[in-house]
Amino acid sequence: MRIDTSFDVRIDAAGKDPDTYSPTLRQYHRHLWSKPLSCGRHFHLSDTVQGVYLHHHSELGEFFLASDSVIPTFTRWKSLKHIIELFPEEENEAFRAIGYTIGGMMIFPGNKIDGKLTINGSRGFNRNIADRFDLTLECIRRHYLAQGSPLADTLSRYHEFFALFDDFNGYVDHFLLHDLVSEDFSTINYFMPFDNFNTPSVPKDVTAYAKYRQLYT
After folding, report:
1. Residue 121 domain-assigned?
2. Sheet with 105-109, edge to edge strand ranges
């Protein structure tokens, strides 16, 4: 299957949420992430289960996966309007378009456990993360090391999913995230200055936001 990395998945979502309604995005996810794990067993994803985005069921376990955008543009944030409006709208839209390509999408377990937030929900509502994938990835790295993070409780609820990949290196390898980590997998390539989740998760001025956007273009 040919993957068009420039395809805007909003195009075939009929004006609805592409994470749910774009058939192209779903097929891209299924094709990219259905492959052997480090243990040698195949992690096959099916899109034929009614009401489930992507599904895996084997001796490895049963997993319900959902798509999520991982490039927050902040262009719709009212609190950042004073910064966003300093950029031409065509540039803002071009930035949003990048976030709606396959390179701006990821899959996570989509089923709620004990009625609590999913990973997608937690990373969006937690202001220490602000939907940023670099910070999410740092939480995942710490999960494999049994270290605390703003998403520690949420990630622990999905420990069986993360166990599929053995360790952080295996997770990065499976989801092709090498550009986001150092060569030895020990640190994250952050999109903004980072100090143990004590630094702001969103840009505070136009200079910080311009640097943040530049990383994607």
Report:
1. yes
2. 54-58, 61-69, 105-109
102-155 pLDDT, tens per residue? Answer: 999 999 999 999 999 999 999 999 999 999 999 999 999 999 999 999 999 999
Measured CA distances, 161 to 40, 95, 114, 171 (Å): 16, 31, 16, 10
What total number of domains does the chain contain? 1
Handedness of CA 124, 128, 134, 137 (dihedral sign): negative
Q: H helices then E strands: how many in the chain?
A: 10, 5
Report the length, in residues, of the chain. 217
At 59, the amino acid letter reads E
Structure tokens that stand for 73 in this block? 């543009």
Separation CA 44–CA 59 (nearest Å): 12
Host domain of residue 26:
18-214
